[in-house]
Amino acid sequence: MTTIRADSAPPAGIGLLGYCRPGFEPELAAELGERAAAAGIAGYARANRNDGFVVYASDDPALAAALPWRELVFARQKLTLLAELRGLDPKDRIAPMLSALHGHAPFGELCVEHPDSDAGKPLAGLARSFGNALRPALRKAGLLSARDNPHIPRLHVCFIAGDHALLAEADTRNSAPWPQGIPRLKLLADAPSRSALKLEEALLVLLDDDQREALLQPGMRAADLGAAPGGWTWVLTRHHLRVTSIDNGPLRPHVLDTGLVEHLRADGFHWQPPQPLDWMVCDMVEQPRRVAERMATWLREGWCRHAIFNLKLPMKKRWDETRLCLELFEAQSARPLQVRARQLYHDREEITVFATCA
Fold first, then answer.
1. Tell me, which fold does domain 16-181 have in CATH?
2. Catalytic residue among 78, 198, 312, 317, which?
3. Does the annotation count 317 as an active-site position?
4. pLDDT value at position 290?
């Protein structure tokens, strides 16, 4: 069992720093602890609910590699913790940071940020201004490349308070490329609903560059289960996919006007396609295990080759339910799959799953 501790700090240079949706710190702590234990790595999680981050302390240098960012569900970002600095003097926060980083190889980029929490958001101004002051000081000390270099580790400074900061390192191949781990997406005026942002983020976060290019080809065929009012269908048509939208409710007229959409008034939970499709997406409100079983049927029967769907989580034991549903889905799919799941920024009490035939 993971112990959540709020009164101890990990030794400098040991452990992970993960950002998460505020309120889901226990879920991320449990996930990190369970995955670390499965890899034979001992440690403990330090977390407070609604802080927006979790520290997982361990003295095993293999920890970061054993917990790849893309495989984590509740972590928006995963970083290697280098130091925790408390009692910083507002008149000189830079000197202690340079001292803590002394002897470290140069970083390729600097990211100064704060947790995405009620307590963290007022620190946005400090983060912006401090980055402008720290960057030249790091370069003068030989701790930052003269120009941004995305091919070497990135330095993160996360302000918890004005006098409290975490210094962490990002492996650019094993971390989110966006500040705070949040891709900044804009809801376009013609989007039928805000749920469109969930699918846009899923395609950006859960698929890598090669998969987006290969798996979203114009003319591919897709089904959107529980489509009304058409947010996810609309996103697919923007990639020039032909979509069968399944819902007893209406779609927004301009979604139909694309000429790429066939709307069938049917129950998305029971409908099946007359012929195999490239994609199936689903954002229906239903018990997560029931959804996982139905999604597995689609992959097992060969009704689609790729899928993105949401699992609505219960109020309690959310990591346990997540793990159970993902195991159930993979077992009942009965075929080799590549599966990634994440609680996205635009998700709430849910996770989003991407599955593709291996």
1. THUMP fold (3.30.2300)
2. 312
3. no
4. 96
